[in-house]
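Continuing from yesterday's entry. The apo prediction looked reasonable, so today I'm repeating it with adenosine-5'-diphosphate included to see how the binding region is handled. Same sequence as before; SMILES copied from the compound registry.
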Amino acid sequence: MTADSTRPAPEAPAGQAPPPGREGEPILRLRGIGKNFGAVQALAGVDLDVPAGQVTALVGDNGAGKSTLIKTIAGIWEPDTGQIFWKGQPVRISSPKEATDLGIATVYQDLALCDNLDIVQNMYLGHEVRRGWLLDEAGMETGARRTLADLRVTTVRSIRQPVGSLSGGQRQAVAVAKAVRLQAGLVIMDEPTAALGVSQTALVLDLIRQLARRGVAVIVISHNLSDVFAVADRLAVLRLGRIVAAGPASEFDTQTAVDFITSGTSSRAAQAPAGGGTSGPEG
Ligand SMILES: Nc1ncnc2c1ncn2[C@@H]1O[C@H](COP(=O)(O)OP(=O)(O)O)[C@@H](O)[C@H]1O
Ligand SMILES: [Mg+2]
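Holo prediction written out below.
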């Protein structure tokens, strides 16, 4: 881990398409995931494919199981049943560190960063670049600046300002930039735009699209369906711990999404996307 260099690892420049064959391939597959808390069945038989280079929105009412599902991916809970496949291989993700080591980054709105440290320090925390005995401050500054510029984050005044002084959207930009620097293959964001104003929301939605454009798989949990439709390539609807619909966002509209969220079915759904072709129960 100390073999980090001052250059950002080879990444597709912003706006450039990922290498052929990568986009659309599921980097993460869930099969039959179940999780109980005592008598509460939080998740049951969850099948989900999460493709690289696409934004998958996970939607559902309060208590549907969204946070529990991403916590099983992020290594906070181990599922009681089912199998997680990462890049085609069956894996057990027993701790957040194991998730991070695989390349799974979770961006929580407030938890991920240290307020008293500046942007550069946060971005390199635990992965500091050294020159001999000394920290390579100049190199890390350059790397941090370049990563933010690649993500088109232009609203940060100084990369030496403490993260505690940043707006909610800027904080997420730093967390996302850190995930990019660590070459995360999957970035999970739980309610990234909750509590953000209009321009900050636009910043975060743009960041999410930038990530997908760079070939990263993104899972976004959101209550805000207009954000979901603005940013998602795919939708997966959880209800009472089960996936009731999954497929391309173009197969849904606000009304069908609301139907699935509230009742688990929609009479208006043209192609009844339960399973969505790639996340059916088989497999
Ligand atoms: N740590 C926990 N202990 C007990 N029950 C939990 C715990 N976490 C979640 N649950 C229960 O699991 C269900 C799904 O919760 P959650 O995943 O938080 O839903 P969502 O994020 O979609 O609102 C709910 O019934 C919730 O009360
Ligand atoms: Mg939740």
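Comparison notes:
- The chain has two domains: 25-103+186-283, 109-183.
- The pocket of adenosine-5'-diphosphate (ligand 1) is lined by residues 37, 40, 42, 60, 62-68 (CB under 6 Å).
Will overlay with the apo model tomorrow.
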